[in-house]
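Hey everyone, long-time lurker, first post.

I ran two proteins through the pipeline my lab uses and got sequence/structure pairs for each. Pasting them in order. The first:
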Amino acid sequence: MPEPFVRLTLPDLDALGLDWPDVSGLIAEYERLQAEHHKASATLDELLASRPVAIERDRESYAAAIRNAKPDPGETALAKLHTKIAGAARKAEAIAVATRAVASDIADLVDRRRSELLRDADRAVAEDYGTLREAVATWEAARARLHARRAVRAWVREFPGRTKYVPGAAPGLRALIAPNGDSVTFEELAQALRIDAEPAPVAEPASALR
């Protein structure tokens, strides 16, 4: 029975800045085999789709032989195609076997190193939350200063008719509308971003591979 192909969606650890070379190596091997399996499957599909053409070629050859009083040339085109189909199917199945083995190796490796990998991932997540909090604080300060400077511009334009410089409250965000139809205020959005920059408890999902 043909070996089923294991379809996994795996992370790009290098892009995420996670230095796990053994895991990354197996992921790279899996992705290479996945690409090879896709190519082998496409080749097999093309060969199977060309079967009617081979049958028609053999039919035409036989018809020509009959007209020329020659012996049956046999199903040569179909026989050649079947040889190619058998080879392509064998290759696709072998790649599927190899891919399943790599998937199993990834599962075993992650299982062995799970505690260590989780510690690394937790550290990376904590760093990202810190970066996010800094970004929110920077955004808050930049928008507050922007509003204050716009108030200075208005003061300059109207002075001395306008004797007081009053920045006032930061205006709402035009692109965000609250359920009541008003613009979301600066403070509402800032508070939402502050909450988003804090880690929330995450339920650990059960393993889907095993």
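...and the second, right after it:
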Amino acid sequence: MNRGSMRPVKWRPLYSAVILGVVSLALVSCGKKGPPFLPKTDIPFKVEGLKGRWTNDAVLLQGNIPALKRHKKSRPGVTGCRVYHVRYSLKNPPCEGCPIKYPGFQEIRGEILAGEEFLCEISVEKKEGIHFFEVRLIGPEGMAGPPSNRVKLTAEN
């Protein structure tokens, strides 16, 4: 092949455009600028042995918080809880042990502790299906603790 017959490719404008694009993307997307900080820690308290039962148009959730034994003198600052709830059809229940996805939660503020016992009543319509509940305690700054075990309640018409 004759080198003189090939047209030379002008790489300089192409390289310049690519470099300019990469640099501008790096400047725009390099993250939040600000001083470093430590994230707020979650509260360490967890509801264990969570149980539930239907009461009229509500569900009464009860459990224990064993870690409160170590904090008898200084109250731990539990200000409420988040109750996660989801309902599945009786015809299409999730498998036992499968992860459950909760679409949201209802936040309960106020007194939910009686000594080392957790006690919370949440308004839930008793629709036919399989209802799952999970609870997380909330600290003074709105930080949530670890999840409780999940409770399964069935409602049949």
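Reply from user beta_strand_b:
Welcome! Quick read of the second one: Strands lie at 48-55, 58-64, 80-88, 105-109, 113-114, 117-123, 129-138, 151-155. The chain has one helix and eight strands.
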